Each structure stands twice: as structure tokens, then as C-alpha cells.
Amino acid sequence: MMMTMPDIRALVPHSGQMVLLDRAVSADADNLCAEVRIHAGSMLAGEEGVGAWVGIEYMAQAIAAHAGWLALERGQEVKVGFLLGSRKYDAKVSHFAPGNVLRVHVHRVLQAENGLGAFECRIDIVGGLAHAATATVTVFQPDNVNQFLKDGNAG
Prior knowledge:
The chain has helices at about 10, 55-75, 145-150, and strands spanning about 25, 30-35, 45, 50, 80-90, 95, 100-110, 115-125, 135-140. It is α+β, with helices and mostly antiparallel strands and about 160 residues long.
């Protein structure tokens, strides 16, 4: 496990306001924990805060950060991946309130040779509700993203 985590922007292939996570807290071969503080003025916030449905994107970005962390650990470039979907996204809250600090935990349970992966994910509200949201998320990271986008060939 790395003692100092890289800046989250070095781990995810997003930029600007689309980086929703604030920082990576910890990582190892199969796990990553990231953190996000909910701000009333964020682009996704409504009157009550950020809708719990955004949790699936927090999870997806934490998975991307895990892939980025693994790539950097191996001396490779951070690559784009795809969120394929989720099974049973369950949120115990309707919104994440301004001031909430969320811990987004992702655990890799499957990684196929072809780039398909599955992660068990959860969001805990620091100092509040544990398991505020949970899901199994499937992702895909082709070897050659440009070729995949051009003709659907993942190889």
C-alpha cells in the first residue's frame, strides 16, 4: 500500500468540474477508498444537497481511480474505461447533504483478461450513516480505447 496517495486528478481520466472526488485516501491491489465533501454550490447540488443517485458516479470515479492507481504503480499510463452498469444500487438517503463527507469504498471482485471488471461499492457518510449507498458496479477497460470506439473491437 502506498503511504502518500497521488492527487485524484492524476488517477482519473476526467478533467475540470467533472472530477467529483476530492481525494484518494488509500489503495491496494483490490481496493480503493476515496473522499468527497458535499458543497451546497456544487454543479450537481439542489436545495437538499446532491441527489443520492449521483452516488453511482462517485463509485464509478473511485473505480477509475483504482485503475489509475494500479496503472501508476505499474509505470503505465492512466487509461479511459467505461461504466457498463450496476446491480441493485441501494441508497438509504435521498440526498447527500451539504457538509457531508463521503467515503467511497470500492472492492474489485472480478477482473477478466478482456478488461471486464466488477466491484462491490459502498458510500459511508463520515460521522453518520455507514452503507448510505451500496451497489455492484461493472466496468470495462479495453486495451485500445480508440480502436474500441472506432469499430467495437476491444483487442
